[in-house]
Every structure is written in C-alpha cells, then in structure tokens.
C-alpha cells in the first residue's frame, strides 16, 4: 500500500508482489489486477477493493466460502420443508 495515499497503486503492488505471491504476473498482469479490482475506476485500489480482490483471487478462501454457502442453503432448505 502506498503509505502517503493509503491506496494500492500499480507501483506499490509491483513492489510487494513477492509478498503477495504475485511475482509471476509481470507488469501487464499486475496492471490487469488493478483494473479488475478497481470498482470506482480511479486507477488504484482502496482497502475495500483490495480485500475483495484478494478474496476472489484466493482459491482456498473461495472454496471455504462455497462450503459455507452450501451448508447455509442446505440448512435453510431443511427448515422450509
């Protein structure tokens, strides 16, 4: 995160790509990551946009979320039978 702006910029993402496991993405890939997560189209990621993007990019988190949703749907279905 850019400490001065409080936002994730392309430069800050590139600088921290190894820590985030994104070192194999290259510059174009990192730009695409910013574009994909940038919900307000300002060219940067605020904290919420970054968290949402990392959640979507993490298969482990997504499979956990799918399991949680499946269990919730099953419980709801059983209640309404």
From TrEMBL:
Please name the PROSITE patterns in this protein's record: EF_HAND_1 (PS00018), EF_HAND_2 (PS50222)
Q: Name the Pfam families for this protein.
A: EF-hand_8
Q: Which InterPro entries match?
A: EF-hand-dom_pair, EF_Hand_1_Ca_BS, EF_hand_dom, KIC/PBP1/KRP1
Q: Where would I find the EF-hand domain in this sequence? A: 25-60
SUPFAM superfamilies in UniProt: EF-hand
Assigned keywords, A-Z: Calcium
Protein name in the entry: Calcium-binding EF-hand family protein
Origin species: Actinidia rufa
């Amino acid at each position: 995160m850019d400490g001065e702006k409080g936002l994730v910029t392309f430069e800050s993402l590139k600088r921290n790509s190894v820590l985030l496991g994104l070192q194999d993405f290259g510059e174009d890939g990192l730009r695409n990551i910013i574009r994909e997560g940038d919900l307000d189209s300002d060219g940067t990621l605020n904290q919420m946009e970054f968290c949402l993007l990392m959640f979507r990019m993490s298969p482990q988190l997504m499979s956990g979320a799918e399991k949680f949703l499946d269990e919730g749907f099953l419980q709801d279905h059983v209640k309404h039978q």
